[in-house]
Design a protein that fits this description.
The protein is of the alpha/beta class. 43% of the residues lie in helices and 16% in strands. It has helices at residues 27-40, 67-77, 94-108, 122-126, 135-157, 192-201, 213-230, 248-260, 264-270, 283-291, 304-315, 330-341; strands at residues 2-6, 44-46, 82-88, 112-117, 159-160, 172-173, 185-187, 204-208, 235-245, 299-303, 320-326. The structure holds flavin mononucleotide.
Amino acid sequence: MDLGIFIPIGNNGWMMSKNSPQYMPSFALNHETAVNAEEAGFEFLLSMVKLRGFGGDTEFWDHNLESFTLMAGLAAATNKINLFASVALPTMEPAMVARMASTIDDISDGRFGINIVSGWNQIEYSQMGVWPGDWYLEKRYDYATEYVKIMQELWADGVSDLKGEYFEMDDCRLSPPPRDGKVPLVCAGQSDRGMEFCAEYGDFQFIIGTEDLDVVRNDASRLVAAAEKTGRDVGVYVLFQITMADTDEAAEAKWQHYKDGADLEAIKFLIGAAEMDTAGATAEKIADMQQAFNLNIGAIVGSHATIAARLDEVAEIPGVKGVMCVFDDYPVATKEFGEKIMPLMASR
Ligand SMILES: Cc1cc2nc3c(=O)[nH]c(=O)nc-3n(C[C@H](O)[C@H](O)[C@H](O)COP(=O)(O)O)c2cc1C
């Protein structure tokens, strides 16, 4: 089973909490994480594209580096780990992104791929005047299809003349091409349409992990069914939040401490309830909101042995080819995971 890391391109990683490690994103932090990941034996790193934060006391995700630029830096500073940057389609033209990708393919000697983000959070794009309009939500995967076809033509043939509904190429050229005449694509749409798109054009499909593995099983089976229709080999990568300690109790206590510090103002933004008066909310409602402090990414909390056993269970799910980890304290956890969890995993 492949293992990857969703690296901390935004402040505080994936915990909207006043009690979790507080940090700004920086090249130094991501570089240290990448070097530790490579040494530990992780197969890949992915950075997201996030253009507008959630605010709150922790200024959650108000601070984010740019994904391609960061991965280009990491490409030059690593030797064997695979690297994925994310593109939010409304923000950049496909011919430019194809060229950026073939450049990072060169820097990394063929270790680079792209996460295709069709784009759903309107404010990220409208703030810079590039939201295509209301029609986009409905049509975004049709738009993504033309976008990806253009890039794939440029990589394979060095030229695209595609005349589509959304793009018109006019003898558009690209050279030098990437090493293999292609660049791997990953996608993270959770809808059936998103998965169909990945089954047609992607190499890996990300799904959001849940504590109930039957939900993961069901989501993976949707991708497997879509890939059977296209006859392509597309692996599922599952996203999990890993919190480890020497004992289950110590890990649970750490997790509870993070949850107790939930940044409710930032969570309100996430759940689309910015106007809500939390001072007047019931204890039940507050507890409910606190649950979302880790953006509802499935949590695996426990000792090293507990986590290794759980990941082995995930590896058994049909269609699953890997797990992408989110950590609390990145450089430290990356090392600890490599030293204490990987050796216990039967699936490795
Ligand atoms: C692992 C993973 C990575 C993602 N990366 C990004 C990202 O970088 N930027 C972003 O705006 N959305 C990101 N998303 C959201 C997806 O691109 C997608 O829009 C979302 O899961 C909803 O699915 P749908 O588009 O099929 O409705 C990510 C989701 C997952 C699970």
